[in-house]
Write a structure and sequence with these properties.
6-stranded parallel beta sheet, about 15% strand, alpha/beta, 7-stranded mixed beta sheet, single chain
């Protein structure tokens, strides 16, 4: 009997050990999915922390910055593109630049259409020289709403959604042109009486309106006896500018000279002066530069150029685009300044790159 009881006790003990062992295995098995889930959550944690959204900034790929100019037929806007593409060439790991623009500054609707196409491909940022202060506003605000920062150059657009404006103070630039013209007349010993023509590239463009107004207001202040002929607008056409200047030369014996508010009308006016043989008689002060205006400085058809910094607008425009993409707050407006260039200083080293930014072009 005692032997039977001993056997039963041993059997019960063995059964208890077996049951405990099974319970432990079951516990381990039941915990495995939880451990697996925890490991899965740990592996997904970076995505939950937002690392996935930051991946484009960390993957080493350059940002896509679209640069849209006012016109492809103007040297001034080509200089803007040289600045933009040079920045990309110097920083290929940071940015790639695409460029576009309508043929002429009068093609406002076409510029808007190009802008809308650019937005549809969702670049990382847009740098734009808008011909119109109003026509591009809906598209630009749409771009910003989609997370595409916008950098404006040259012309202010009527929205506060853009990151910054890089542009000339054109009222001040126009006043500088007036000061320069009057100084030239005085240097030639001419009485400040007679007429001066104002030839404008286009009506309704704010930068030109400011430029012309700055010139007109300053002329009234410093040379009140000089009559300013009513401003002529030529719709971005150099031939029209030449014809307008030629008409004023033939119609006014007391004509003293011209103010031309960009390089297109500057070149056209220079041609008219040259064809009339009036290089030594008329003073021409024009904005910006192109090969024909530079040639005019040498021949005397152009007395002075008021130079903006289109190269700098393009270069800094792309640089600021990258800052905006990174979330940096930019100054709302940066005055890019003007420089007066004459025959006397046109060969100075610091002036050459302003006169002809093509010499800076990389590649």
């Amino acid at each position: 009997m005692k032997k039977m009881l001993a056997i039963m006790v041993v059997a019960v003990m063995l059964l208890s050990v077996a049951l405990v062992g099974c319970g432990q295995e079951g516990g381990t098995a039941s915990q495995a999915p939880a451990e697996s889930s925890a490991a899965g959550e740990a592996s997904q944690a970076p995505a939950d922390d937002g690392a996935a959204s930051e991946a484009p900034a960390d993957n080493g790929e350059p940002k896509d910055v679209a640069v849209l100019i006012k016109a492809t037929d103007s040297d001034f806007w080509q200089y803007v593109l040289i600045g933009a593409t040079n920045y990309a060439a110097e920083n290929p790991d940071k940015v790639k630049v695409t460029t576009d623009g309508p043929p002429n500054e009068s093609d406002i609707d076409q510029q808007v259409s190009i802008l809308e196409q650019i937005i549809s491909r969702e670049p990382d940022a847009i740098v734009i020289a808008s011909t119109s202060s109003d026509a591009t506003v809906p598209a630009l605000e749409d771009a910003v709403a989609k997370g595409i920062p916008v950098i404006t150059v040259d012309n202010k657009v009527n929205t506060d959604k853009v990151s910054t404006l890089l542009a000339t103070d054109n009222l001040k630039g126009g006043a500088t042109a007036a000061d320069t013209l009057v100084e030239k007349l005085k240097a030639e010993g001419k009485e400040l009486k007679g007429k001066v023509g104002v030839i404008s590239n286009m009506a309704g463009v704010q930068v030109l309106t400011d430029r012309d107004q700055g010139f007109i207001d300053r002329m009234k202040e410093i040379a009140p006896d000089i009559e300013l002929i009513e401003t002529v607008y030529v719709d971005g056409d150099m031939t029209k500018a030449m014809d307008a200047a030629a008409d004023q030369i033939s119609a006014n014996d007391d004509l003293l000279g011209f103010f031309a508010d960009n390089n297109t009308v500057g070149s056209g006016s220079a041609r008219a002066i040259t064809e009339a043989g009036k290089e030594n008689d008329l003073v021409l002060v024009a904005f910006d530069s192109d090969p024909e205006e530079i040639k005019g400085l040498g021949t005397g058809a152009v007395d002075a150029l008021i130079l903006q910094d289109p190269y700098g607008m393009g270069y800094k425009g792309v640089e600021d685009a990258l800052k905006a993409i990174a979330g940096e707050t930019l100054e709302s407006y940066v005055d890019t300044g003007v420089t007066v260039v004459t025959k006397d200083n046109m060969d100075d080293e610091e002036i050459k790159g302003l006169l002809d930014p093509t010499i800076k072009k990389i590649g």
